[in-house]
Amino acid sequence: MAGGGAPDPKHGQFLGPPGNFGGRPQKGIITYTLSANRQRPLAGTMQAAVFNTYRRARSQFLYVVPPFIIAYVAMNWAIEKNEYYNSKEGRMKDAEEAAAATAGGPVRA
């Protein structure tokens, strides 16, 4: 009998419990199951993680490393220049250049 069982006075016809509504059985659907103690959900995870991480890091190498090298060289140059400007020789040279700039000389017209 397709569609249920005895009529229910409040809700109409009872179709059956969940998962078995009394309809025709479906054909052509195959279900495979595996016991819970036979499953290995993390099988090969560590090896795959190591090689996948290496592959992804290698592919991003040229996008990451050159900007870091440029930033390191620029920062190193700026630190050295700052140390020179704040040293005795740097201050003396700066004073000489300032004196030469403010000294009287030929005036351009």
What key attributes describe this structure?
mainly alpha; two-stranded antiparallel ribbon; 51% helix; 109 residues
Overview of this structure, please?
This protein has 109 residues and is mainly α. It has helices at residues 45-85, 88-102, and strands at 7-8, 12-13.
Short structural summary:
The protein is mainly α and 109 residues long. It is 51% helix and 4% strand.
The percentage helix is 40-55%
Shape: elongated
- Could you tell me the radius of gyration in angstroms? 41 Å
Q: pLDDT under 50 segments (min length 5)?
A: none
The count of helical stretches stands at 2
SSE order, one letter for each helix or strand: EEHH
Largest sheet: 2 strands, antiparallel
The spatial strand order of the largest sheet comes to 1-2
The average pLDDT value, as a whole number, equals 82
E-strand count:
2
Structural class, from secondary structure content? mainly alpha
Strand fraction equals under 5%
Per-chain topology:
Elements: E1 7-8, E2 12-13, H1 45-85, H2 88-102
Antiparallel strand pairs: 1-2
